[in-house]
Amino acid sequence: MHKFFNYTTAASVLVLASATFSFAETTYNTANTISLDVDHADSFQHFAPELPQMRARAATINTEFGLHVSEIEPGLFFVTDLIYQSAFVVTDDGIVVLDAPPSFGANLRNVIAMTAPDAEITHLIMSHGHRDHNGGSHLFADIPELEIVAAAQVAETLEEFPLEGVLAPTQIFDSTLDLTVGGIEFQLQTANFHAEDADVMIYLPDQKFLMAIDTVTPGEAPFMNFGATTNVNAYFETFATFLEYDFDHFLSGHVSVLGNRQDVVTARDYAFDVRNTVYGLMPGFNDRMMEGLEAVEFQNANLAYRVAMEGIRDDCAEQIISRWKNKLSVVDLWADSHCETTLVYAVMH
Questions:
Q1: In the chain, what are the domain boundaries?
Q2: pTM of the entire structure?
Q3: Cα separation of 331 and 322, whole Å?
Q4: How many CA atoms lie within 13 A of 82 on its CB side?
Q5: pLDDT tens-place string over residues 117-150
Q6: Regarding the domain delimited by 52-273, which CATH topology (the fold level of the hierarchy) does it fall under?
Q7: What distances in angstroms separate CA 222 from CA 17, 246, 324, one per listed residue?
Q8: Which stretch of 32-46, 128-142, 147-161, 307-321 has the lowest confidence by average pLDDT?
Q9: What distance in Å separates the CA atoms of residue 304 and residue 278, rounded to the nearest whole number?
Q10: Which residues contact 22 (CB under 8 A, 6 or more apart)?
């Protein structure tokens, strides 16, 4: 555990400090920005393009419905609109859909009908209850006796706070559920790496397929704040859980690339590099804080605290970008948020 600046001491110093410091009457932008103005100091042109090796893996639209569809294992189909991802499995007893993003609209139904015109959809398994991944489930509401499978915590959240387009679950489970449909085995296990209530890892052992949404983005650094996780420590710890599974395919929910085991290993190494870098910088926190206090003549402890936070964040981001810029795309877009997310967690723990 790290010891940080003592606010009791800071408060005493503030009382004793003379009130002579004055701030310039200037409005400051309190957030990082990206400008579309090519001449701006923060122009988008200063950011690196996506790496060629990532672009080479990108899926392309191959249907008239504006979606990419590919059969990655017999009966198991990967679907993406190049931003969101889903999958469905054609079994002897019907079709099982894994997530229904609203960005797909009705086209997910169209693709399924095109792929297996004589099969009925029997199950929709939700990875979690967020609208951006299951807000298209209402388009399946007309299917008789459709089973909507979700974690009990997700069902409770949706009952209290319904989300537009997200159907209420009809089959719930607490921690694990083994489901067999038409001879295909689905192993479901809850976790807490992203959502505020529960995430569900969806594993098909025979197909060596693992689905864990809003975790990694294959070929890229994760989205800001490590996929906007609500549980930083669990995010780090869940990589070990992922890698306990025997899988070749990893569906993470975003971008057009279907991941693999190496993508998870790379994402783990990246995340732990961020964590280790932040904790390596933490011993200098108090010195940065004192430097800020002296600069403002001990009249604005919050400003000094922010100076210390931003200094560690920026030093962390600089190191991470230098080490990962040729390994993952968009590191320079999101590294600062990963460092800041880890830093805030480190301050509190």
A1: 52-273
A2: 0.89
A3: 9
A4: 11
A5: 999 999 999 999 999 999 999 999 999 999 999 9
A6: Metallo-beta-lactamase; Chain A (3.60.15)
A7: 44, 23, 12
A8: 32-46
A9: 19
A10: none
